[in-house]
Amino acid sequence: MEIVTRADRPDLRETAAAVFKERWPEFVFHDEVPRRYTDRAEKYFGLFDIMVLDHGSVVAGGWGVPVPWNGAVGDLPSGYDAALVRAVEAREADIPATTLSFMAAAVGESHDKRGLATVVLQELTRRARDQGLAHVIAPLRPTWKHRYPTVPMDEYAGWTRPDGLSIDPWIRTHQRMGARVLGTAPRSMVIEGTVAEWESWTEMVFPVTGEYVIPGALNLVRIDVEQDHGVYVEENLWVQHR
Asked: Residue limits of the N-acetyltransferase domain (predicted)?
């Protein structure tokens, strides 16, 4: 296997994007904050935007951003969106980063069960250490939380197996690397759209105003038919690696 940055191999950009798209529901790609900040993040933080190649093919990838964080739970960003904003704006204001925040990691569906997500996270951690960053954190999007969209994240995070590890596979991956839960990321992503857009993103129909369970969502989406507006506020889980 070979690890490269996306800047090293721009010819694989579309392939890498397809790997990431396999793992997330469509509505996730309509968050306005990444639309405004991701291009700058890619420009500033290419060292932390990596792909794993196997015989020249993209099998996994991940990225992170360096952020200022003082180590206190109260100083954590409110989630994924806020971490991205903090990283970019701190870089533009010449505020030193102290911490790497993992933003996403994905493995191609045909390459599951090979430990590739751990490879990605370990490589990003190594790069953070080499750059002198003191902490590594992540706003996790737990793999199975969409099965329990009405359960608060802090309650879900406390559900464990007999061996003491989380019931959630993605949380377990981080726990096995020594990560500990810091708390919830209450407004990790906020996605808004018209009723028609939400119907398109979810392949559902929303005939009346109310809260709905939608495929792939960790929380409920609020649809207001009269105002032609839907909003989804996703709660994630902050963890810190050793």
From this structure: 1-209
Which pTM does this prediction carry? Answer: 0.93
Which residues fall within 8 angstroms of residue 37, CB to CB, at 6 or more apart?
Answer: 84, 85, 88
Rounded-to-10 torsion of CA 6, 143, 234, 134: -60
Q: Give the containing element (helix H, strand E) for 202.
A: helix 195-202
CA count, 13 A, side-chain hemisphere, 103: 26
Name the 3-class secondary structure at 51. Answer: strand
Report all structural domains of the chain as residue ranges with CATH numbers, in order of start: 2-188+236-241 (3.40.630.30)
Q: How far is CA 135 from the centre of its chain?
A: 17
At 47-71, the pLDDT tens digits run 999 999 988 888 899 999 999 999 9
What does DSSP say about strands 99-107 and 135-140: parallel, antiparallel, or unpaired? parallel
Q: At what angle do helices 169-176 and 116-130 cross, to 10 degrees?
A: 50
> Which neighbouring-strand residues pair with 54?
57
**Please, which residues have CB within 8 angstroms of residue 62's CB and are 6 or more apart in sequence?**
50, 102, 103, 104, 105, 106, 117, 120, 121, 124
Other residues' Cβ atoms within 10 Å of the Cβ of residue 58: 24
